[in-house]
Design brief:
With 730 residues, the chain is an alpha/beta fold. The protein folds into three domains: 11-26 and 488-720, Orthogonal Bundle (Sec63 N-terminal domain-like fold); 51-65 and 252-476, 3-Layer(aba) Sandwich (Rossmann fold); 75-244, Rossmann fold (3-Layer(aba) Sandwich). It contains 32 helices and 18 strands. Strands 1-11-10-18-15-12-14-13 form an eight-stranded mixed beta sheet, with helices on both faces. Strands 5-4-6-3-7-8-2-9 form an eight-stranded mixed beta sheet, sandwiched between helices. Strands 16-17 form a two-stranded antiparallel ribbon. A hairpin with a 4-residue loop joins strand 10 and strand 11. It is globular, with a radius of gyration of 27 Å.
Length: 730
């Protein structure tokens, strides 16, 4: 068995890019050991007794299901449908307000006129959800899907896909001179324009999109929607109309869950815009040693919490926890009491669960299945297999679960409404460190509370604890949305693809159409921040572009006047994270082109984002063929990687553990055996497989220049895309 160690388990094992490539297999690491101390007996927490403030009891009387009435669109929905007939349109509204209904009606009207629509989302899960919904509404033959993992019915009148796929199609259209075959673009979750990692893709789409194609943007509330609309109007030469709705369709009531089991309003009435904590909550927050809801370092008794919530009819609920481990542990802290009270619901849950996992041993034997069936509760996070997450999502959507324990990422985009959400932390992990929740993040989570058409009101419960700042949460309840900033940045794939169809002067004009350029001319505060980041007149951004061009010219991918060489032409098709390093490996015959399993393994090393210590290289655990190929690739790419680093660019660390796991998987090592010996969570390794497959798809595109490696890439995809990574639920 192989134990793969990540830096979150041993922070001393992280290494720098420079140290990695300079030392390769001779990395020295520092181990961290914590002294063991006698465990103290945990502080006893008194049992909870359900109770509620009188003011809340009057609110609880409103709980129920709205009367079944014919659907009547809200004014903002009708306004948006009318606006998109003549202009671009930016719709901002709270989560659950009905933005998707606008997209449905616009699509219906387009199909009636034989029009074609491209519906782009930031998340594959959301793409799958929208595809399912639109297929039901408009018929499967009229709806296709394009993600990195799935390509079905690509010539359909309605295409649902991820933003990266749409951006790549725009690259192709600019290169070939062909028009994008589309009459309307819908960009869902458009506030992703401000996402630090992926916002550049959204910005590129808006810059490159032909003016003839109307643009409908659907977003949660944005603080500077006027600037975004003004920018789009300026660069596209057609008005962009803002349609704004600030009213939640289902009123939200924030509640404080006292450790005793008593519920209090979080805020006093009529204290907006400066929210004031309810007097009992204020007293608790300012007590030196307030009663705890759980022993130090432990999660609360979720069985008792659910019992209190059930007493006041506040279920089903989504609990937002800080980590995957907490979500899984929370499931163990529930009990079957609630589900046993509703035998019909329990029977329906068991039957539906059996149906969903039938014929799939990986799902049927999932370690959470027994707890889910007994307790009516489930954990949902990215560490689980995609297919298992779909099982949980389906059960939640059918109203068969009492609680779902999730990380905050589930709040974005995917439709998981519940009567209540429960928030245990006032901060969240952003991939690097923990930072306080922003108003937008809080509102994304709170937006899941209260199901339109199913609930009269919704609730956001705040639980006290070590990582909960109640005063901070109070400021977020009615806080205005944050502004969205430009996240445009230069990478080699962008430079190669723009040089396919533009000369450097034309590209500078394109960059001058960026949101960053518009912000530089905005109000004083915004302008100053934009100039600091991008330079006066985008000077810093343009210098970065020139630096990328200089390196490409130095390495023979472009000429000094910016024209692509033969190497540049085929390398532009490698729309992946490390196109140059992979291209260098291909043009110098470093990548295995006659062994698909070996090629999949090497590409997994390029895709991997975890840090490891390469013990396997010295323990004799590797198959000889893999070891030789891996070391050959690392040694062969070392000079090029050092050139990248010395020029100020990044080069990924290549570790053998992910390569070994992928090699074993391609050679049909059973999934359970592979996971038992790996530090990867199932969902993480499934994601590595899917991303590796996408990288292999890109390599398969260069069949005219490198037919052998392109063929091996195609064959490698078939070796690694199999159950349980790809199932009927994926």
């Amino acid at each position: 068995m192989v134990t793969c160690v990540s830096p979150e388990h041993d922070p001393g094992r992280a290494c720098t890019f420079h140290g990695y490539w300079l030392q390769l297999a001779h990395m020295k690491t520092k181990r961290y050991h914590k002294e063991t101390k006698p465990r103290r007996r945990p502080k006893q927490i008194p049992p909870m007794k359900p109770g509620a403030d009188k003011g809340l009891l009057r609110i609880f009387e409103k709980i129920g299901v709205p009367e079944d009435k014919p659907f009547i669109p809200d004014p903002f929905q009708l306004e948006a449908i009318q606006a998109i007939q003549d202009t671009d349109c930016l719709v901002t509204a709270p989560t659950g307000a009905g933005k998707t209904w606008i997209a449905e009606e616009v699509t219906r009207k387009s199909l009636e006129k034989n029009g074609r629509i491209w519906y782009a989302t930031p998340l594959k899960a959301l793409t799958n959800s929208i595809h399912t919904r639109f297929s039901q509404l408009f018929g499967e033959k009229n709806v296709g899907i394009l993600t990195g993992d799935i390509k079905e019915n690509a010539d359909a009148a309605v295409i649902i896909g991820t933003t990266e796929i749409l951006r790549n199609q725009l690259y192709d259209a600019m290169h070939t001179g062909e028009n994008l075959n589309c009459d309307l673009i819908i960009l869902d979750e458009a506030h992703y324009l401000g996402d630090a990692e992926r916002g550049v893709v959204w910005e590129e789409i808006m810059i490159y999109l032909p003016v003839r194609i109307p643009l409908l943007l659907l977003s949660a509330t944005i603080g500077n929607s006027d600037q975004i609309a003004g920018w789009l109007t300026a660069i596209r030469g057609r008005p962009c109309r803002i349609v704004e709705n600030k009213r939640r369709p289902v009123p939200l009531h924030p509640i404080f869950f006292h450790p005793s089991g008593t519920l209090y309003p979080l805020l006093e009435k009529n204290t907006s815009p400066s929210p004031k904590l309810h007097e009992k909550v204020f007293a608790y927050a300012n007590t030196k040693n307030p009663p705890a809801i759980a022993p130090p370092g432990r999660l609360p008794d979720f069985g008792q919490i659910l019992a209190v919530m059930d007493k006041f009819d506040l279920l089903p609920a989504i609990f937002f926890l800080k980590s995957r481990a907490d979500c899984d542990q929370a499931l163990k802290l529930c009990n079957p009491d609630l589900l046993n009270k509703t035998p019909k619901k329990k029977a329906a849950l068991e039957q539906t669960l059996d149906d969903l996992v039938a014929g799939n041993p990986h799902l049927g034997d999932h370690p959470h299945r027994r707890d889910l069936a007994r307790k009516g509760c489930a954990a949902h996070h990215s560490g689980h297999l995609p297919a298992w997450k779909v099982v949980v999502e389906t059960l939640m959507a059918k109203g068969l679960l009492n609680a779902m324990f999730a990380t905050s990422t589930v709040a974005a985009g995917v439709n998981f409404p519940a009567r209540s959400v429960v928030i245990l932390n006032s901060d969240r992990f952003n991939g690097v460190d923990f930072q306080s929740l922003t108003p937008s993040e809080f509102q994304q989570m709170a937006g899941r509370a209260g199901r339109r058409g199913m609930d009269n009101i919704g609730f956001a419960l705040v639980l006290p604890g070590k990582f909960m700042d109640v005063k901070k949460i109070a400021t977020l309840v009615n806080a205005p949305a944050l502004d969205v900033d430009s996240q445009i940045k230069i990478d080699f794939s962008m430079v190669l693809n723009l040089l396919l169809s533009h000369n450097p002067d034309q590209i500078r004009t394109l960059l001058n159409n960026s949101f960053a350029s518009y912000l530089i001319t905005a109000g004083r505060k915004r302008s100053k921040a934009a100039r600091k980041r991008f330079g006066q007149d985008l000077a810093l951004l343009w210098n970065d572009f020139l630096a990328h061009m200089d390196f490409l010219a130095q390495e023979g991918f472009i000429t000094h006047d910016g024209s692509l060489t033969q190497d540049g032409l085929w390398a532009s098709k490698l729309r992946i994270d490390s196109p140059l390093l992979v291209a260098e490996g291909i043009r110098h015959n470093l990548l295995p082109d006659q062994d698909p399993a070996l090629l999949a393994a090497i590409m997994a090393a390029f895709v991997n984002e975890k840090e490891f210590k390469d013990d396997l290289l010295f323990e004799g655990a590797l198959p000889k063929r893999l070891k030789q190929s891996f070391l050959s690739v690392r040694k062969g790419l070392k000079p090029f990687a050092l050139k990248l680093l010395s020029s100020g660019f990044s080069a990924p660390n290549l570790f053998v553990q992910p390569a070994f796991l992928m090699y074993s998987w391609a050679h049909d090592t059973p999934w359970e055996d592979l996971m038992a010996g790996s530090d990867y969570a199932e969902g993480d390794f499934a994601r590595l497989i899917l991303r590796t497959a996408e990288n292999l798809r890109q390599i398969a595109k260069i069949d005219q220049s490198f037919p052998r490696v392109a063929l091996a890439a195609k064959q490698a995809i078939d070796l690694i895309l199999k159950e349980p990574v790809i199932t009927q639920y994926h």
